[in-house]
């Protein structure tokens, strides 16, 4: 399976994406022309050494950040043609996020955190709570619904995040080092959970990680170095 | 050692201790200073928050200094070189004339160098006269004629151009009048004026000059006619060679003489011939003392009032520091992990705090100057006539403010940093919030039990000393202690809610339990502050521990619109989770709004009281006339016949008076007083209200009836009770039921029992029947008239008063309009209240800037959360909405709580302060709504920019970890 850069069946398509951070003092070229296509239902892992631009790429692909060159298409729509409002709504309806840490709002309970995306997209509160509970059940945390993040372990917190990222049945889920804060045992559990969900719901997953044990669970690994895609391969089945 | 040096010493001591610590732990100090420097912007904000206490103290002191200076300056200006005025009194403490040789001999003795504390002396005659300007017919019934010997006078008499007037200008039929009288009479040089003195012989004189308005020309701020001394003696008073005053200058210049005033009096006593009962009026010293005591009173009042703001400021400092500490938690956790002691952390904070406190003290005392300037500007516009002022302050006041501010700020910082240094290392490093009740149950138990013990102690001492403060605070503290002790056993919501409600109930005492349980209690201004703090703490506890109910309701109503639900959900969760912070912010807002509301209410009561007070204080008589010379009753009626016929005047009640002296209770001293006799018929239907009445009488009118028929009883005016609000006049204090010993002018004594004390304070007299006066003394004066007007006549009361003064100018009749007197008195009181409102309103700045600071910090603190929210689909305006909703909730809840508690206390004050007697319970809704609106809008304005900043954060940027 190679990168289908021209691919029309790609749900996410990046063409010659460049990103330069301008801090005023220095300019950092975080992305120097990235080409990438992600197919629907695919689970890819973006890997590479620290500072190679993984987070930047993820933020650009998901529309959280603007790019300085090239083009990104999501379902054929050019991201740069959408204004902030449309992009935000798009995120609310079609995209799920899992970050390394600081995923959850500390002042809300698990259930409240999970149902938040639904409430944003206007789901009636009762239905939202029902769906949130289903999602929590899917990650095995239905009993922790009334706990605040500070009362959960790191792995549990991350599972709540996963529940939140999946609750509105997004087309694409972006994860930035979702296992970064966890021990290897929990990391594996989370990855297995993500892969199972990916297979069940045919949702697309783009996961950033620097841990090969995590990356090898994906359908495809994209290796980055110095702001470019270095190689792109399917991992050995384990 | 005065308080300024004491404070300075303490500050220096503290700084020395800090200095030693710095030397011992240089690295810590370096870290602290770097922290201050690294966050310059934040340092500016924090200093702004910290300087409030200093600024309020400095403002109060500078205001007092300025007023004191103004009064002192006025004393110097209006007494010139004169330090002491000698007069001679008779049995009833009234002035009598004495031989001029007394003055001449004294002058010789001083000139002979026999008295080192005396500079000079001059004879004078000063006497009340009425004056009528012939040119325009304007009368002035209570001027002073000043007989002066220009060659002996201690101060020169200057004409309008500042040149000394010549003997010719005040001899024969020429007189000089001063600016004050010229203004009253609208007189100009060349006018002929008619002067009517006690002898009733009118003198006609020509105004040669209007004197320069300073020194002799402004003597005691009276309306003066200057005439040659011998002319007054021979032609006006018909007392050749007699004088009634000797003006004396003590050694030293104008602004030094008062320092040796007492020694000068002692010397005078040795030099004056025996045989006379001399009175030494130390005008300069008394004026300076009055200036000092006024200044002390004002600064005390303002400092007491600003303690609300200062307390709010302290709450703000704690809030800022707790926030600062939370933000630095990971940093501090790592420091702890690598081996820093808890004490080291406290020290770092302390060093940082010292830097902030120094900044705050320095800048705060300067800001205080600005506050004083604004307040004085308002004062002068309220005082009317645009009191000219320049800020004047003693360097020591600024020093005191700076030192006191520094200590308050530092103390708060020490407590706050000690608190924050007690963090859990692991939780700190991982930036996990401390669980709300993380402290071990034992600590709560200990704190609780200690509070209970302290509360009991305070309560007991309150009961034994009959101090209201202890009785209010003790049980409140006990309840809080119980709640604290039970924290682990009982849901704190219940204990704290119950405690809060108890404190409110106990403080407001709606069922009047306290007097029933404890009898009459002693209380002062401090009670206002104490009740305020108790009520607000109670309110905050109830609000904080029930916020989920409150907010749940809010979310349900506010979240009805589905698109707002997530905004409400998040906005509301923060205050619910950060209870300590929210509680402090609520406390600040509520406390300030509470104070402002109570003051606004009192001002409203004062305004509303005018009508009822006028009616009750004046006994239904719109006018009261007092003449210098007797007006025979039939002469009075005859002269106002036309006014009575045409219905302008509906009733005239002549009363008689006699000079008496009252022997002060238990003292060897007498106070000159007036005995006032009303006719039987007037007494029988008297409508003057009584402040206090002997329980032997069922109503005020029964008491008045007793006065009409029983020569053993009398009623006295209200000045004998002192004043709760506003200035008090009179030095005599009398209790109900007391037997007064009155000395008549022939020296014999008469006793009466006081069965009532009047509300009115304008007319200081012992009220009896006219028969009583006539039977007890032969010096009966027919000089007091109560006059009722009929309002349908088309004449205003002021017009009637002016007309009467004109018709009876030869008798020196002065007519007072009761309503004007009461109104101007109440006006002063209620505008003082309003000034206080403004002064305290400045405290709102504390709350508002506090919330602004907290919002700025919240945005920084919640960066990543904002990022997550944006990532999962919160629009920009939703982020803005979240922050605005959160700050609005806190500020509005605080504001509303403060207003409600303020209204509740005012409702009680309405009874306690005796307002219910005169005024309806009128809530100035417009004023209050304006206050609420202003406070809220400024809060929005202060929190909008940081909230906007939060909304503008780019999601990817927000998500990035900044460490
Ligand atoms: N907001 C920013 N401003 C400036 N430089 C940045 C910013 N974000 C990332 N960088 C820089 O861009 C490069 C790529 O960063 P990032 O995408 O976070 O790498 P990775 O996630 O692979 O560790 C790094 O050199 C990083 O320092
Ligand atoms: Mg990264």
Summarize the entry for a quick read.
The complex is a heterodimer of chains A (238) and B (963). Chain A is an alpha/beta fold and 238 residues long.
Mind explaining what this structure looks like?
Chain A has helices at residues 54-61, 84-94, 110-120, 125-138, 154-167, 184-201, 212-215; strands at 10-22, 27-39, 43-47, 69-74, 77-78, 95-98, 172-176, 204-208, 220-225, 228-233. Chain A is built from 7 helices and 10 strands. The relative contact order of chain A is 0.19. In chain A, the strands form 2 sheets. Chain A has a 6-stranded mixed beta sheet with strand order 6-7-8-3-9-10. In chain A, strands 2-1-4-5 form a 4-stranded antiparallel beta sheet, covered by helices on one side. Chain A has a single domain, classed as Rossmann fold (3-Layer(aba) Sandwich). By secondary structure, chain A is of the alpha/beta class. Chain A is globular and about 45 Å long. Chain B is an alpha+beta fold and 963 residues long. The radius of gyration of chain B is 35 Å and the shape is elongated. In chain B, β18 and β19 (749-758) form a beta hairpin. Chain B has a 6-stranded mixed β-barrel, surrounded by 4 helices. The longest helix of chain B is centred in the first third of the chain and has 45 residues, at 283-327. Chain B has 5 domains: 1-72 and 289-430, no CATH class; 84-281, no CATH class; 440-545, no CATH class; 562-615 and 820-963, no CATH class; 628-812, no CATH class. Mean pLDDT of chain B is 85; it is low at 724-729. Chain B is built from 31 helices and 22 strands. The interface between A and B is medium-sized, with 34 and 34 residues. The site of adenosine-5'-diphosphate has 12 residues of chain A, from β2 and α1.
């Amino acid at each position: 399976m190679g990168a289908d850069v021209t691919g029309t069946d790609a749900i996410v398509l990046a063409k010659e994406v460049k990103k330069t951070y301008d801090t005023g003092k220095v300019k950092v070229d975080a992305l120097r022309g990235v080409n990438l296509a992600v197919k629907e239902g695919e689970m890819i892992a973006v890997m590479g050494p620290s500072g190679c631009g993984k987070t930047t790429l993820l933020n650009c692909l998901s529309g959280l950040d603007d790019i300085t060159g090239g083009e990104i298409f999501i379902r054929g729509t050019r991201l740069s043609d959408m204004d902030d409002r449309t992009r935000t709504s798009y995120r609310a309806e079609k995209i799920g996020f899992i970050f390394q840490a600081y995923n959850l709002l500390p002042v809300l309970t698990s259930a409240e955190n999970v149902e938040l995306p639904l409430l944003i997209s206007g789901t009636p509160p009762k239905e939202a709570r029902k769906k949130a509970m289903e999602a929590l059940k899917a990650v095995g945390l239905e009993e922790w619904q009334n706990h605040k993040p500070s009362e959960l372990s790191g792995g549990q917190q991350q599972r709540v995040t996963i529940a939140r990222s999946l609750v509105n049945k997004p087309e694409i889920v972006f994860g930035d080092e979702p296992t970064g804060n966890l021990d290897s045992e929990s990391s594996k559990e989370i990855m297995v959970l993500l892969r199972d969900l990916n297979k069940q719901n045919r949702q697309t997953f783009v996961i950033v990680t620097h841990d090969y044990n995590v990356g090898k669970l994906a359908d495809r690994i994209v290796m980055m170095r110095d702001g470019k895609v270095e190689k792109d391969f399917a991992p050995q089945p384990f | 050692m005065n308080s300024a040096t004491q404070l300075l010493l303490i500050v220096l001591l503290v700084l020395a201790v800090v200095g030693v610590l710095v030397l011992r732990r240089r690295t810590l100090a370096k870290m602290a200073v770097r922290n201050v420097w690294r966050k310059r912007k934040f340092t500016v904000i924090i200093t702004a928050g910290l300087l409030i206490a200093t600024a309020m103290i400095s403002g109060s002191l500078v205001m007092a200094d300025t007023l004191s200076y103004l009064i002192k300056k006025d004393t110097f200006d209006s007494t010139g070189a004169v330090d002491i005025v000698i007069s001679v009194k008779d049995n009833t403490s009234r002035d009598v004339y004495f031989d001029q040789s007394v003055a001449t001999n004294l002058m010789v003795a001083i000139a002979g160098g026999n008295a080192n504390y005396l500079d000079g002396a001059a004879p004078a005659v000063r006497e009340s006269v009425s004056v009528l300007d012939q040119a325009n017919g304007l009368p002035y019934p209570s001027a002073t004629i000043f007989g002066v010997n220009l060659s002996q006078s201690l101060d020169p008499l200057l004409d309008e151009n500042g040149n000394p007037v010549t003997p010719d200008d005040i001899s024969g039929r020429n007189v000089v009048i001063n600016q004050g009288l010229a203004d009253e009479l609208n007189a100009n040089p060349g006018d002929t004026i008619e002067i009517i003195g006690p002898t009733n012989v009118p003198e006609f004189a020509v105004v040669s000059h209007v004197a320069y308005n300073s020194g002799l020309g402004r003597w005691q701020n009276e309306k003066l006619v200057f005439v040659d001394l011998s002319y007054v003696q021979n032609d006006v008073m018909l007392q050749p060679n007699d004088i009634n005053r000797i003006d004396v200058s003590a050694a030293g210049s104008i602004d030094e003489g008062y320092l040796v005033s007492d020694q000068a009096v002692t010397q005078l006593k040795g030099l004056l011939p025996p045989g006379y009962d001399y009175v030494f009026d130390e005008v300069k010293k008394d004026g300076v003392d009055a200036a000092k005591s006024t200044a002390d009173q004002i600064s005390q009042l303002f400092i007491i009032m600003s303690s609300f703001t200062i307390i709010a400021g302290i709450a703000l400092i704690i809030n800022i520091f707790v926030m600062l500490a939370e933000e630095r938690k990971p940093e501090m956790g790592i420091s702890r992990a690598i081996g820093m002691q808890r004490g080291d952390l406290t020290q770092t904070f302390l060093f940082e705090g010292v830097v902030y406190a120094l900044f705050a003290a320095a800048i705060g005392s300067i800001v205080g100057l600005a506050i004083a300037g604004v307040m004085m500007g308002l004062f002068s516009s309220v005082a009317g006539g645009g009191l000219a002022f320049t800020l004047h302050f003693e360097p020591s006041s600024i020093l005191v403010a700076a030192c006191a501010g520094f200590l308050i700020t530092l103390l708060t910082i020490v407590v706050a940093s000690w608190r924050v240094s007690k963090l859990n290392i692991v939780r700190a490093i991982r930036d996990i919030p401390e669980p709300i009740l993380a402290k071990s149950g034992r600590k709560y138990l200990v704190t609780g039990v200690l509070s209970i013990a302290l509360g009991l102690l305070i309560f007991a001492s309150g009961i034994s000393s009959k101090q209201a403060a202890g009785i209010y605070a003790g049980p409140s503290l006990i309840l809080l202690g119980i709640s604290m002790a039970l924290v682990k056993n009982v849901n704190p919501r219940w204990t704290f809610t119950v405690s809060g409600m108890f404190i409110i109930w106990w403080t407001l005492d709606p069922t009047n339990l306290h007097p029933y349980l404890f009898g009459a209690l002693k209380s002062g201004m401090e009670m206002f502050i104490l009740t305020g703090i108790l009520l607000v703490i109670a309110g905050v506890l109830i609000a904080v521990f029930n916020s989920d109910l409150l907010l749940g309701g809010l979310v349900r109503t506010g979240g009805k619109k589905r698109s707002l639900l997530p905004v409400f959900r998040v906005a509301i969760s923060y205050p619910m989770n950060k209870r300590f912070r929210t509680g402090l912010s609520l406390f600040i807002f509520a406390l300030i709004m509470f104070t402002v509301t109570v003051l606004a209410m009192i001002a409203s009561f004062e305004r509303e009281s005018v009508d009822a007070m006028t009616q009750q204080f004046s006994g239904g008589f719109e006018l009261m006339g007092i003449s210098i010379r007797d007006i025979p009753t039939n002469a009075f009626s005859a002269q106002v016949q036309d006014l009575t016929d045409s219905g302008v005047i509906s009733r005239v009640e002549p009363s008689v008076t006699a000079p008496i002296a009252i022997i002060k209770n238990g003292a060897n001293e007498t106070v000159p007083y007036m005995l006032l006799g009303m006719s039987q018929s007037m007494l029988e239907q008297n409508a003057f209200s009584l402040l206090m009445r002997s329980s032997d009488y069922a109503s005020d009118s029964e008491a008045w009836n007793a006065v009409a028929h029983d020569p053993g009883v009398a009623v006295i005016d209200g000045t004998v009770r002192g004043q709760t609000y506003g200035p008090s006049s009179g030095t005599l204090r009398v209790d109900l039921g007391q037997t007064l010993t009155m000395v008549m002018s022939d020296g014999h004594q008469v006793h009466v029992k006081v069965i009532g004390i009047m509300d009115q304070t304008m007319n200081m007299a012992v009220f009896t029947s006219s028969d009583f006066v006539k039977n007890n003394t032969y010096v009966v004066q027919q000089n007091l008239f109560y006059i009722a007007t009929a309002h349908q006549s088309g004449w205003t009361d002021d017009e009637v008063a002016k007309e009467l003064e004109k018709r009876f100018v030869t008798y020196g009749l002065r007519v007072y309009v009761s309503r004007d007197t009461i109104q101007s008195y109440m006006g002063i009181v209620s505008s003082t209240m309003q000034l206080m409102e403004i002064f305290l309103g400045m405290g709102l700045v504390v709350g508002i800037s506090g919330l602004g600071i907290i919002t700025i910090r919240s945005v920084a603190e919640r960066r990543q959360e904002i990022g997550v929210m944006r990532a999962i689909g919160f629009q920009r305006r939703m982020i803005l909405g979240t922050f605005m909703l959160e700050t609005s909730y806190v500020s509005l809840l605080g504001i509303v709580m403060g207003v409600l508690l303020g209204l509740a206390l005012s409702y009680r004050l309405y009874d306690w302060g005796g307002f219910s007697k005169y005024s309806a319970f009128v809530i100035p809704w417009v004023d209050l709504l304006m206050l609420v609106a202003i406070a809220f809008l400024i809060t929005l304005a202060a929190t909008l920019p940081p909230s906007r900043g939060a909304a503008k954060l780019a999601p990817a940027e927000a998500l990035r970890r900044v460490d």
